[in-house]
């Protein structure tokens, strides 16, 4: 039996058009919208780096060049800041380009999340890897991804993050039927259903945008027919692996109980900005004071 390989690669699909934020995203990738003073995508890359993933592949599309530029060095800007003696801003600029080895590949014709993950096959090779969705903003203080990596290394299968949602919202998610694993903090996934009707959902445990996958998923994705919406669904491929046997079979789930924001949704995005800003030492006190007064005002 081959020794399991340590996980060092992360895949971040970022080819979406961001139509929910038009016109702001007409010429600016939605992933570059700032959460306080850093683009949302940087938090995702930082999360991967924090979990020890040093090789990061971003799946992009047309009009996404700003993503590559953000994680690249900018010699002119750096020289300008250094000449001014602005060490704080210089360090902030360096931070984004020092997070890891960044790679980029274009998805071409977007055909769903499963298709986007499949675009990473040649880069990932025969290694387990993580997938982080840019719209899912996890509390930076949590170590969800590290926990998922540990479960993958222990089980040898694939791991998804799930969280309890209001039953009225299950039709917006992939939903799992799962059973506890004795003596463990994770659960075994018996079935996954993509965006079920409320009355057909096997539970209210919804899959959120963090995965740690066995490379066998690439073979399954190649043979996965388009599903809901005419797209190749990663959920369908994981359902196949959940029912499979042999190396790389089995799907497990870590139940996340921390804070999560869908930064692809306008209201959730605003909540993320306000939450993080209110917790910062430089902005929090004044912002919380202002919010207290603002919320006390009668609505117009």
Automatic annotation (TrEMBL):
Molecular function as annotated in GO: UTP:glucose-1-phosphate uridylyltransferase activity
A family per Pfam: NTP_transferase
Keyword Nucleotidyltransferase: yes
Taxonomy, superkingdom: Bacteria
GO biological process: UDP-alpha-D-glucose metabolic process
Enzyme Commission numbers on file: 2.7.7.9
Catalytic reaction list: alpha-D-glucose 1-phosphate + UTP + H(+) = UDP-alpha-D-glucose + diphosphate
Keyword annotations from UniProtKB, A to Z: Nucleotidyltransferase, Transferase
Cross-referenced InterPro entries: GalU_uridylyltTrfase_bac/arc, NTP_transferase_dom, Nucleotide-diphossugar_trans
UniProt family annotation: Belongs to the UDPGP type 2 family.
Protein name, UniProt field: UTP--glucose-1-phosphate uridylyltransferase
């Amino acid at each position: 039996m081959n020794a399991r390989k340590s996980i060092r690669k992360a895949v971040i699909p970022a080819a979406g058009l961001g139509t929910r934020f038009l016109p702001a995203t007409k010429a600016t990738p939605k992933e570059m919208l700032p959460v306080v003073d850093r683009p949302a995508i940087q938090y995702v890359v930082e999360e991967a780096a924090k979990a020890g993933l040093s090789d990061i592949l971003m799946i992009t599309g047309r009009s996404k060049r700003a993503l590559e530029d953000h994680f690249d060095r900018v010699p002119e800007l750096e020289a300008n800041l250094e000449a001014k003696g602005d060490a704080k801003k210089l360090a902030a600029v360096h931070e984004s380009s020092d997070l890891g080895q960044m790679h980029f590949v274009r998805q071409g014709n977007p055909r769903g999340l499963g298709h986007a993950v499949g675009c990473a096959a040649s880069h990932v090779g025969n290694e387990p890897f993580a997938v982080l969705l840019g719209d899912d903003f996890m509390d930076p203080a949590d170590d969800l991804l590290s926990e998922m990596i540990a479960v993958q290394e222990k089980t040898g299968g694939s791991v998804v993050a799930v969280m309890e949602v209001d039953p009225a919202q299950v039709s917006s998610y992939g939903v799992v039927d799962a059973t506890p694993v004795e003596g463990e903090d994770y659960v075994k996934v018996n079935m996954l259903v993509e965006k079920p009707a409320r009355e057909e959902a096997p539970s209210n445990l919804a899959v959120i945008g963090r995965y740690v996958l066995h490379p066998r998923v690439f073979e399954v994705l190649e043979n996965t027919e388009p599903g809901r919406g005419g797209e190749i669904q990663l959920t369908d491929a994981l359902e196949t692996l959940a029912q499979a046997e042999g190396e790389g079979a089995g799907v497990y789930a870590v139940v996340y109980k921390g804070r999560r924001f869908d930064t692809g949704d306008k209201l959730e995005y605003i909540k993320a900005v306000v939450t993080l800003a209110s917790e910062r030492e430089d902005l929090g006190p004044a912002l919380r004071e202002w919010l207290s007064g603002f919320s006390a005002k009668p609505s117009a």
